[in-house]
Specification:
The chain is α+β, with helices and mostly antiparallel strands. The protein is built from 13 helices and seven strands. The strands form three sheets. Strands 3-6-7 form a three-stranded antiparallel sheet. The protein has a two-stranded antiparallel sheet with strand order 1-2. Strands 4-5 form a two-stranded antiparallel sheet. The radius of gyration is 23 Å and the shape is globular. About 8% of the residues have low confidence.
Length: 341
């Protein structure tokens, strides 16, 4: 393309932009165009920033309520999607952008909900996992499982047109060394998590309940899997747990996106003046270590979470997790000293 053609093309784009009415969606389109360089920094190399921005714009057009969310929360979720390499169109089931009303702040905010297929995609990027799957079990299915020294799982799905209500969901990890790991959750456990979730009454929990059930058990199974979790999957799980707990998903200073957030803020693309929340969710490794320490100290996971001021281990911050782990270690030492004497 010649320099003259390039100038003509730029002039044509500018003319089209001037001709567009001043509407919320057109204003947001302009913000996305300004964000393109920052989005490109966050995206994996194989993902086109133009495609990501088209998907985001389509999603916002499909759910206009997103434009009522704070600019900071909406743009933050978009950057997080870019980092994970997941498309938030809600159609592929990779990720969803969900508007919700924050009663404490008296404002609408956007939350990123990672879908079942999004977690599958990230899990398969691990170098240790040969395959991974999750399924739901209905009342008319043949299903049995057993934990212990000789674990087993058997599932024969019913071919009836109406297989009955959902009873369980399970996930299976097959590792490259031949080992397997599985976890099973009952409908009661899944429903308890849905009820605790701030997005439990809208979005994919309503439109795609079975997919969310599979994602929920996959998320729990990944915490206890002997395979190391790929960094982006760990981040996706942490974001998802924040959404369930109603904790801010704002970009943390320790994330690779800190530079992106800083550029966006300095360029005026965040319209809110609120300082970022300091809460940083605990890591999967921290929670796995706490679970092991709980078993050694003979302390329930619920009691350990309460030591950190939370109702569940998933809600602990990194600092709170360190405090809980330290207290558990001290109790184990005290018990050992008492046994010796």
């Amino acid at each position: 393309m010649t320099a003259e053609q390039t100038q003509l093309q730029a002039a044509a784009k500018a003319e089209v932009a001037r001709a567009q009415p001043n509407t919320p969606i057109n204003n947001f389109r302009g913000v996305l165009e300004k964000m393109k360089p920052q989005i490109q920094l966050a995206l994996p190399r194989h993902v086109s920033p133009d495609r990501m921005l088209r998907i985001v714009l389509t999603t916002v057009q499909r759910t206009p309520k997103l434009l009522e969310c704070t600019r900071e929360s909406l743009l933050g979720c978009i950057v997080q999607c870019a980092q994970l390499g997941l498309e938030p169109d809600g159609l592929l089931g990779h990720a969803y952008l969900i508007p919700f009303f924050n009663n404490r702040q008296n404002q609408h905010e956007c939350q990123l909900i990672v879908g079942y297929k999004g977690l599958l995609k990230l899990a398969r990027q691990s170098g240790e996992i040969a395959s991974i799957s999750a399924r739901v079990v209905h009342e008319k299915d043949v299903f049995e499982f057993e934990y212990g020294l000789e674990e087993k799982l058997r599932h024969i799905p019913s071919m009836d047109e109406d297989p009955g209500p959902l009873l369980y969901a399970y996930a299976i990890f097959r590792l490259k060394d031949g080992a397997t790991h599985f976890d099973v959750m009952s409908f009661r456990e899944i429903e308890a998590i849905r009820k605790r979730s701030k997005s439990g009454n809208n979005g994919p929990w309503v439109t795609d309940f079975e997919e969310m059930a599979k994602k929920t058990v996959l998320r729990r199974a990944s915490k206890m899997s002997p395979a190391s979790i790929e960094d982006r999957m760990a981040r996706a799980i942490a974001l998802d747990e924040k959404a369930d707990a109603g904790i801010s998903q704002q970009i943390e200073e320790s994330d690779d996106s800190a530079e992106v957030a800083a550029r966006m803020e300095s360029s005026g693309q965040f319209s809110d003046d609120k300082a970022p929340v300091e809460f940083v969710i605990s890591t999967l490794k921290q929670r796995k270590d706490i679970i092991k320490l709980c078993a050694q100290a003979r302390v329930s996971e619920e009691d350990a979470a309460r030591w950190g001021g939370r109702s569940a281990l998933d809600e602990l911050s990194r600092d709170e997790a360190d405090v809980v782990a330290g207290r558990l270690k001290k109790q184990i030492e005290d018990d050992s000293a008492g046994a010796i004497t």
